[in-house]
Amino acid sequence: MLRVLCFLLAFLSLVFATQKILKVPLYVRRSFNESEVFLARSATEGGETLQLQLLLQTHNNMEYYGTIAMGNPRQNFTVIFDTGSSNTWLPSVNCPMSNSACQNHRKYNSSRSSSYIPDGRNFTLRYGSGMVVGYLSKDTMHIAGAELPHFTFGESLFLQHFAFSSVKFDGLVGLGLGVLSWSNTTPFLELLCAQRLLEKCVFSVYLRRDPREIVFGGFDESKFEGKLHYVPVSQWHTWSLQISKSSVGTKQIGGKSNAILDTGTSLVLVPQQTYHNLLNTLSAKLQNGYFVVACKSGSLPNINILIGDKVFPLTSSDYIMEVLLDRKPACVLAIAPINRGFWVLGDIFLRRYYTVFDATEKRIGLAKAK
Ligand SMILES: *[C@@H]1O[C@H](CO)[C@@H](O)[C@H](O)[C@H]1NC(C)=O
Ligand SMILES: *[C@@H]1O[C@H](CO)[C@@H](O)[C@H](O)[C@H]1NC(C)=O
Ligand SMILES: *[C@@H]1O[C@H](CO)[C@@H](O)[C@H](O)[C@H]1NC(C)=O
Ligand SMILES: *[C@@H]1O[C@H](CO)[C@@H](O)[C@H](O)[C@H]1NC(C)=O
């Protein structure tokens, strides 16, 4: 009898364990548009809301997007999963014909969904070159076979043209924590965890090569080498950690600093003084608005980022983009300065390092991506 019970329990826990891991495949689109897109995000630092102007050079604008559905019957959308913000929005069927950025994408129609619940409050998200404006609605979100009922998201009536017209994704799902979200709304990750749809309140991001994926509820050991190196989240309301030191080769370029892990930023952004030191150490020269470095193969040193007691190097193939300047091939830095006291570790870093975002233990795990 006991044996049967044990077997049954083991069987049940297996069933639940497999139900509570949600895998969402991610696809990549490279954009070679010459124009530059400025995105910004609202972040809070010590209670003060700041507006970060994040530079996405579209030379290197790799969009990593996945699919979700909203409503019943399902309406499908491609979305960016953004660890740097907490709000979720989709273009609305009610956006005017005059808004081409909205018309270029799939639109959510609440009249077609039996599970739609009106909210009606307005929202505005400010971006560096414009904004997203609309109103809040509630519906069931479908993600990787799971259902998330009563999820509050934004229906966008206005999408700023320059930033959103040519992107592949329709909307954005914020994976940040509550403090950054609209007042009195529960952001995606918190709702997912509160409704006990996950084994653990954790998600993991793998961007290196196909099949790329984001895993909710755990991590995928086949996607990284060695052990995960865990460090505490440094400021609980953002997915951030502390960098102890940064250097190029053996030369130090920066000291202790906070860093935000941000899937919504293509590049790595560093504080001004660190950037200045980086440019000097790499003998970078300004040309057509880009910092160009000499890059005969293998000639550039690693940028070493010390996190906890472990070094996470970025090699030149991670931090250099090859572009045409005046029709000649040139190597430009995929690292940009930020007018703040912290780093932003965007996709360039996250491609190299598998990252576990653990809300249960308030920690971040890093390991070299396979
Ligand atoms: C780049 O994007 C801008 C703005 O969306 C668009 O007007 C332009 O035609 C695009 N250029 C190329 C080469 O695709
Ligand atoms: C939505 O996506 C699902 C799953 O990928 C697919 O089976 C379905 O056909 C899609 N529906 C529409 C209307 O595209
Ligand atoms: C939204 O869906 C309703 C119900 O199916 C339909 O009557 C309406 O035309 C749709 N709106 C648009 C703008 O497509
Ligand atoms: C929301 O915005 C619309 C127009 O964009 C306006 O007519 C309406 O009064 C606003 N509602 C609230 C509650 O502010």
From TrEMBL:
* Gene Ontology CC annotation, any one: lysosome
Where do the Peptidase A1 domain residues begin and end?
A: 64-367
So which residues are the signal peptide here? 1-17
Q: List the disulfide bonds.
A: 95-102
Q: Which residues form the active site?
A: 82, 262
Member of which family? Answer: Belongs to the peptidase A1 family.
Q: What is this protein called?
A: Peptidase A1 domain-containing protein
Q: What GO molecular functions are on record for this protein?
A: aspartic-type endopeptidase activity
GO BP: any one term: apoptotic process
Gene3D superfamilies, per database record:
Acid Proteases
The alphabetized UniProt keywords are: Aspartyl protease, Disulfide bond, Hydrolase, Protease, Signal
